[in-house]
Amino acid sequence: MIQKKSGYLLIVFILLSHFSFSQEVEKTKVPGHLGGAVTVTNNGLSFIPTFSLGKPAAIFDLSVGKRLSFDPQFRFSLEGKPWSFLFWFRYKLLKTNKFSFNVGPHLGLAFKTLAETTNGVTTETITAKRYLAGELVPNYHLSKAVSIGMYYLYSRGIDVGTTKNTNFLTLNANFSNIPLTKQFYLKIIPQVYYLKMDSQDGFYFTSAFTLANRKVPVSISSVINKVIQTNIAASKDFVWNVSLIYSFNKKYVEQ
Question: Which SS3 state, helix, strand or coil, does residue 196 take?
Answer without folding.
Answer: strand
